[in-house]
Prior knowledge:
Order of helices and strands of chain A: EEEEEEEEE
Mean pLDDT of chain A: 93
Order of helices and strands of chain B: EHEHHEHEHHHHEEEHEHEHHHHEE
Shape of chain A: globular
Oligomer: heterodimer
Low-confidence stretches of chain A: none
Mean pLDDT of chain B: 96
Number of helices of chain B: 14
Strand content of chain B: 15-25%
Structural class of chain A: mainly beta
CATH architecture of the domain at 6-23 and 58-144 in chain A: Beta Barrel
CATH class of the largest domain in chain B: Alpha Beta
Strand order of the largest sheet of chain A: 5-6-7-9-8
Helix content of chain A: under 10%
Number of helices of chain A: 0
Number of strands of chain B: 11
Helix content of chain B: 25-40%
Shape of chain B: globular
Distance between the termini of chain A: 34 Å
Largest interface: A-B, 47 and 46 residues
Distance between the termini of chain B: 5 Å
Amino acid sequence: MTTRTRVPAVEGWFTMDAEAPALIGQRCGSCGTSVFPGTALACPNPHCTQTELDRVELSRRGTVWSYTDARYQPPPPYLVPTDEHEPFCIAAVELAADGLVVLGQVVPGVTVDDLAVGTEVELVLDTLFTDDEDRDVIVWKWKPVDAGSPS
Amino acid sequence: MTAAGPHDVAVLGVGMHPWGKWGKNFVEYGLAAATDALRDAGIAWTDVQFVSGADTMRNGYPGYVAGATFAQALGWTGARVASSYAACASGATALEAARTRILAGLCDVALVVGADTTPKGFLAPNAGDRPDDPDWLRFRLLGATNPTYFALAARRRMDLHGATDEDFAKVKVKNANHGLANPNARYRKAVTVEEVLGSPMVADPLRLLEICATSDGGAAVVLTSVEYARRHTTDPVRVAAVSTVTPTFPNTIIDLPDLASDSSVSVGVPERTFKQSIAHAAYEEAGIGPDELSVAEVYDLSTALELDWYEDIGLCKPGNAERLLRDGDTTLGGRIPVNPSGGLACFGEAVPAQALAQVCEITWQLRGQATGRQVEGATVGVTVNQGLFGHGSAVLLAR
C-alpha cells in the first residue's frame, strides 16, 4: 500500500501535523495582537506601528461562536470532493487566548443538530478535494470535542 | 418640515428602472433611470455639471468606469466625472462624491447613477485563481457563500436574543406585503409564514424565501445645491448626512468575505460594532437622532439581518427587535415602518443601484408620492446598508 501524497490547500496557513495540527497565525511582539491568516504586512492595531510580526501557532481548541450549513453546492472556485454535493457544516469558532473568531468547515457527519453556540471544538485536518495529480488537498476543519474527553 | 442644515444638499430628482431579470446590458437600465431622474427634476441632461457613477464588477470595463459609461450613453457634454466602487455601498459612495463636490462649491448640479446585470444563483468571485484574495479563498477553502455569513448572523441572533424561525419568516411576510404596490419591485406577491417556513433550507436557519435574490436594475438621483433646488421647487427633499465609515479595530464580528475576525486581545472592543457605527455617524453629522425618524430602508439581505438593523440603527435596544416586529411597529401604519418599498425581499440585489434605490424610496416617501405604500406624514428617513470589505453606508434624508 502506498501512502497518498498530501498537500495543503493553501501554503503556510496551518501545520500538516496529522495528530495535532494547528493554524499558523501572526502575533505582534509589541502589542500582542494576533492575526489569522498570517498574511498581514503590519500589525492591524492602528495604535501600533510594528511591521515585523512573529509566526505563531494558534489555539487548537475553541468554542463555537455561530454555525450554519451549506445545503446547496457552492459555486466555483469551490470544488466538490464527492460525485454529488453532500451538505456540510461551517462553524465560526472563538479562540479565547488569541481573541479571534475563525471560520472553518466542520468534519463530515456532523449536522447543525449536533452543534450549539458554545460547543467545544478542536482543529483537525481533512481532505478538501483530490487534485488532478491524485493528491489529497488538505484543509483545516473543526471537530466537536466529546464531553469528558481529555483536553 | 425640518430646518435645513449648513451641510445639506437637495435631491431634486429620482428615477429607477424596475428590478427584474431582464437580461439586457446594464447601461440600458442606468440610462432609463437617469432619464427618469432628470425628468423628475425638471432639468436637462446638459444642465448636469458632474456625473457620478456606481460601478458594477460583473460587466467588464464599462462597469468599472460607470460614470463615463453613463455620460457617453447620455451624450458627451464635457461634464466632470467620477466612478466609485464600495460593494453594496457603491451608490452611497457615488452620492457622497457628488455631495462633497456640491458642498465645496465646485458645482450645483450632479447626476448619480448605478445599474447592474446579475447572473442567476449565488454571487461568486471573479474568475481566475487568486489565492491571495479572501473573496476567492472563502469559496475555495470553505465553500462559504454569502448566505453562509447571513446564516451565521441569524443563528447568533437566535442564540443571543431568542429569535425564532417564525420571527424571521414574519419579516418576509411584512416586506412582501409592503412591496405589493411598488411598480419598481421585482417580486409583488404576498406570502404566508407557512410558505416561508416551507421553502427549502439554504443555510440553516435561513430558507430560500428569506435570502434576497440577485437582480437587474438601475437607479439615479439628481443632487443639487439647496439654492439651485429652490429655484425649481419650493420644498425639496434634502440629504442631511451621508455616512461611509469603515470599521474600528478590533472588528470582532466576521464580515464578508473574511475568514477570521480581528483579535481583541490588545485593544478593547469599540463602543459600537461596525454596523452600529454606520447610522450613528449619519445621526451625529446631521444632529438628528433615531427618535426623529419617520421611516427607514434597511438592507435585508436576509430576514434575520433586518432585525439586526432595527437595533443597529437605534430603533430599539439590542434584543428588542423581535418585539418591535411582533407588535407591528415596523409594518406600514406602525410607529416606524421599515422597508416600505418591500426591501431586498421584493427587489433582490442589484449591487451598485441598491443604495441609490433606497434613497429614491425615501425621497418618494418624504414627498408623499409612495402610492400604495406611503408612510403618512413622513419627514425624516434613513437608509442603511453593509457590504464586503469594510464598506457600509447610511443616508439621512429630511424635508
